[in-house]
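Sequence of DUF58 domain-containing protein (Paracoccus amoyensis).
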Amino acid sequence: MSLGPAELRARAQDASAHLPGLILSADRLSRLVAPGAHGLRRGGPGEDFWQYRPAEQGEAARNIDWRRSARSDGQFVRDREAQTAQTLSLWVSGGQGMRFSGDPERATKGQRAQLLTLALAMIAARGGEKVGLLGHPARAGRRQIDRLAESISAAIWSEEDGDAPSPDLLRPNQRLVIMSDFLTDPAWVDALLSRAGSIGVKGVLLQILDPDEEQFPYSGAVEFQSLSGGSRHDSRDAAGLRDAYLMRLAQRRDWLQATAQGAGWYFGHHRTDTPPAVALGWLYQVLGG
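Predicted 3D structure, token representation.
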């Protein structure tokens, strides 16, 4: 079950309150702080910069910035240069497997992914970036956060255990964050990152798991069944499966790490029994890099 838009927004606000606005590109950040080159001026979505250029012969006196010119031997004119907001696209798995929680008092993987998605959108919007769900228009501003809260809460779950974003939805030079458990066939990850590399899309793969999926605390006779009902396994000695399961999980994680790194992406993992702020802090670092 998804959280309602009001509750989702309140929790996302609480999780993201400690982080300032996110600026996506490291190159862009360096332009903000370059000494003497630009001065930041806020003006709606994105930012405006004052760009200084040497005054040309016959330049009107009213165009000259005398304060800037006093710091050097020449005269300088101040021009306004608009810096267009970048686009952050977000995708959350809607597979049945994301509805799992090993404890009724703990959030499901899907609920945690939805919370992180909206919280990350809030941080990006704070930084003046355009943000949206993959395949939908990206916009800047607070109203977009309201739209996203509604869309995320109303998301329809897939009938399958896993799902995947279509590579055809990617757009050149966007930043993309994918949140999933990555427990089903991962072939789609290769296809997605191949397409992303061809059009300059960079991003993050974030694996979200329940602690029971990481620790495999089962023993004795256990019936394992997927939430979609598509697969089932009866075991009389569940503890005997633990080592093989944990090895397979580690192999999957190593593969995701290597695949992401090879494409110039980041890979991270998050457990639903840890605070969402932990994952948000990491996402903030790698996206703002």
